[in-house]
Amino acid sequence: MGRKKLFWIGRALGFLLLIPGILGWGKEGHYAVCKIAEGLLTEDALAAVKELLPESAGGDLAAVCSWPDEIRHYYHWRWSGPLHYLDTPDFLCNYKYCRDCHDSAGHKDMCVTGAIYNYTMQLASAYQKTNLRLQYNLTEALMFLSHFIGDVHQPLHVGFTGDEGGNTIVVRWYRRKSNLHHVWDDMIIDSALKTFYGSDLEIMIKAIQRNITDGWSNDIALWENCANNDTVCPNPYASESISLACKFAYRNATPGSTLGDDYFLSRLPIVEKRLAQGGVRLAATLNRVFTSRRDIAQAR
Question: How many C-beta atoms surround the C-beta of residue 158 within 10 A?
Fold first, then answer.
């Protein structure tokens, strides 16, 4: 994506309004992605992140990873709604940036992958000898980027247009009425916390971190890598998500169905791996952006 197009995205975000959109991973999922990422940051990247975090975060990136969900319904932030997801044509289990990255009004680049490119560029601009850095709030860019890298790893954030990424597919999660998107945002994680982790999110995160170190150790380099030495590469992540949506999220989840143990136990490994991949890739992106320690506080 060229610099001119990225600059256009930055300008467009200030003018476009929200068509009602979709939340990302629930608060627990975003917290997990960012907590995993924090543990994988280089010394330089961690220092830069801490300089950019708002005081309310207490030096903890995970503490503000749900901020884009918390503010998106306020009038001032309504333009950010379409940036949390993208929709593909119905029953096409593939993703193409030029075809799929737009909001419901047709504005190009207004989707989660476009936002990831944009906010990475904004952070990287702090290291360039140009005036571009003066146009961006780098604290907000960091929080948006961290959130959206989490979002693109939730399979139904790259779901079908017709059902709004599973939002209009009404199902029961055990005895509770819900919709398929909410099941993947929150309910699989909530059930896992209660069933396997004593309702303790930190224990779940540590279990995922152990899998990163042990079970998935041979895959980490592939997860981290971006082709052509790009700083960020969300397109493959979106392609993975729509493939997983077709194979696992939509499968056996027709309107009115009850999803229970079979669905939960077979989908939980997918959810935990996507949380792991989101954390690893967020860390890799920030490590590439902040390759050496610089004083960026003045750019906040």
Answer: 31
Cα–Cα distance, 103 to 66 (Å, whole number):
21
CA distance 202 to 294: 32
Q: Which two structure tokens, joined as six digits, stand for 163?
A: 């059902």
- pLDDT per position as a tens digit, 19-45: 333 456 889 999 999 999 999 999 999
- Alpha-helical (H) ranges within 126-198 are 138-152, 180-182, 188-196
CATH number of the domain enclosing 27: 1.10.575.10
169, part of any domain: no
Backbone angles phi, psi at 268, to 5 degrees: -55, -45
Residue 200 contacts by C-beta under 8 Å, 6 or more apart in sequence?
193
Residues 143 and 67 sit within 8 Å (Cβ to Cβ): yes
Residue 259 parent element (H or E):
strand 258-259
- Tell me: pLDDT of 174 over 70: yes
Let me know: does 289 contact 45? Beta carbons within 8 Å.
yes
Condensed to tens digits (0 to 9), the pLDDT of residues 124-167 reads 988 665 555 568 899 999 999 999 999 999 999 999 999 999 99
Is 55 domain-assigned? yes
In terms of residue numbers, what domain contains 30? 3-163+175-299
**188-210 burial: b if 16+ Cβ within 10 Å, else e:** bbbbbbeeebeeebeebbeebbe
Assess if residue 179 is contained within a domain: yes
Assess if residue 117 is contained within a domain.
yes
Split into its structural domains, the chain has a count of 1
Kindly report, residue by residue over 83-115, the tens digit of the pLDDT: 999 999 999 999 999 999 999 999 999 999 999
